Amino acid sequence: KVTNIIVHRTVDKVIEKELDIDNLYIINRDNNKNINMIDFNAVEVNKLLSKVINNIQNNFQNIEKGDLSKINIEELGLENYDKKNLKKGIIYRIPLGIIFNNTLLSNFGPTIPIKINLNGNISGSISTKVTNYGINNALLEISINLEINQLVMLPITTEKLSFKTSIPVAMKLIQGIVPSYYFNGIDKN
Fold first, then answer.
1. Cβ(70)–Cβ(62) under 8 Å?
2. Is 107 helix (H, G, I), strand (E, B) or coil?
3. Of 140, 169, 171, 187, which is least surrounded by CB within 10 A?
4. Contact partners, residue 23, CB within 8 Å, separation at least 6
5. Beta bridge partners of 94
6. Is 1 in contact with 43 (CB distance < 8 Å)?
């Protein structure tokens, strides 16, 4: 849950600060200002992906080290967490009974700290989608796909967790010229 919050809030902040939607698309027009071609600006899109991944890694590493001076706790949605524990890199405390996978004992025993440990593996990609939207219009969408691998460290065991998400970044409606006639096939009736 914490990972999900940190990833989504980090992506939101990078997009809010760094994103100019018009730079993500290249639109070529003819002399009459009609659209000839639309393409995605690969350089700008990859810069955005790189900034997102770097910011997520930095936030996780700072939380892992307990260095709260370099992160904005409110922006990441961590204002309700115990700051003493966050300074130790602890993101959650669970009862000892949960480790034994027994529902009767799940709420009993002392609490065990769960530390965040970035396994050094955040991978990302950009997906683009073009959809027909009415007559001679197109809806362009750009999404960031992230996969994050982490280790959850408990005193008895260590478990590797994988987290995948797809976050929409930009949508743009491109309007072409509406033709003077439109033929949508022959109806047999």
1. yes
2. coil
3. 187
4. 41, 44
5. 112
6. no
Instruction: Cite the beta strand spans of the chain per DSSP E.
Output: 25-29, 35-40, 90-95, 111-132, 137-153, 158-175
Q: Is 76 exposed, middle or buried (0-12, 13-18, 19+ CB in 10 A)?
A: buried
The order of strands in the sheet holding 158-175 is 90-95, 111-132, 137-153, 158-175
Residue 185: band (very low, low, confident or very high) from pLDDT cuts 50, 70, 90: low
Spatial CA neighbour of 90 closest among 100, 98, 81, 99? 81
Residue 28: its pLDDT value, please?
85
* Length of the chain counted residue by residue: 189
Lookup result for tokens 């260590």: 158
Query: What type of residue sits at position 156?
Result: I
Q: What is the pLDDT of residues 138-148, one digit of tens each?
A: 888 888 898 88
Instruction: At 28, list the tokens.
Output: 């070529």
